[in-house]
Amino acid sequence: MPEEQQEPEEQQESTLTVLLAFGANLGIAIAKIVAAVITGSASMAAEAAHSIADTFNEVLLIVGLRRSGRPADRRHPLGYGKERYIWTLLVAVAIFGMGALFAFYQGVETLLGHPGEESDPLAGYIVLAVSFALEAVSWQQALRQVRADARDEGLPMIVYIRRTDEPTSISVLLEDSAALLGLLFAFAGLGLHQLTGSAIWDGVGSIMIGVLLTAVALILGRINLNLLIGNQADPRLVHDVRGLLGAAPEIEWVVDIVTMTVGADRVLVCARLDFRDTLTAGEVERACVRMSHELRAAHGEIDEVFIEPVPRDDPELRDRVIARYGRISPPGRS
């Protein structure tokens, strides 16, 4: 199948993106911890926690990539593709639990009048500058991959991010974008603290980092929640499937089509079709096999196809379709 040839390349690209982010975040986390101890800066400590969380998250993403790539078996006949979404959802939880909450704690503690002693901000500036350069390298790799994937799908990048069934590179891109903004907040907090002598700015910088990480966690959580519940396939694929089935000479009416994403570039298609009454049982069987092959040949991401012959005037089925879509698909060949 086409997807079997494409999947290794896509997974290798995702793995490269994650490994690059892991190496950058690990080095940055160590440097930020040292700088936070030297400077006593709340925003620098928040950024250190942020980088520790990001480093841990890359490990989760790598585990998700490996485990979700296992082939289908008796216990999991549709494969393990959705396991990737579980691990990416854990990334969102870690961003909030390990990064955002610590940043909020540091910021509130500073604003309440318990700031750490800021001794030498120069070390902080150096670490922030080096961190920004390293994060930019990782961010560029993630952005390049997301742009390439969006281009392959023929979608604007924002639309692709909303529709994608491959959240790994999106996770790295959002993490690195938050990291770059967080570094700017930390730099502002550190600098304003030095200029004004007031630790309030350091606390505000830490809280802003917390707000930023909370937003990223919510976005990632929402993306993976939809994928775990079971998203419909790309509307363009659904429309094309309807057209291909409706054009088959054996089909009187395409009654209902249900699709679901079951993993990265893996789609389940269930079609209820009203076959012409003049067909024999054998002709219906051969038509089902042929249409399944045609759908897979047209769309490599279609993994399983189930076709159910049904009468279009069945009242119970009609009510179920109306309950799902609000209306019955119009009769015809499309």
TrEMBL record:
Cation efflux protein transmembrane domain segment(s): 18-228
Residue ranges of the TM segments: 16-38, 85-105, 125-143, 172-193, 199-220
GO molecular function, one term: monoatomic cation transmembrane transporter activity
One GO CC annotation: membrane
Membrane topology of this protein: Multi-pass membrane protein
Annotated keywords: Membrane, Transmembrane, Transmembrane helix, Transport
Gene Ontology biological process terms, A to Z: zinc ion transport
Principal location: membrane
UniProt-annotated location(s): Membrane
InterPro entries: Cation_efflux, Cation_efflux_CTD_sf, Cation_efflux_TM, Cation_efflux_TMD_sf, SLC30A9
PANTHER family, A to Z: HUEL-CATION TRANSPORTER (PTHR13414), PROTON-COUPLED ZINC ANTIPORTER SLC30A9, MITOCHONDRIAL (PTHR13414:SF9)
NCBIfam families xref list: CDF
Protein name, per record: Cation transporter
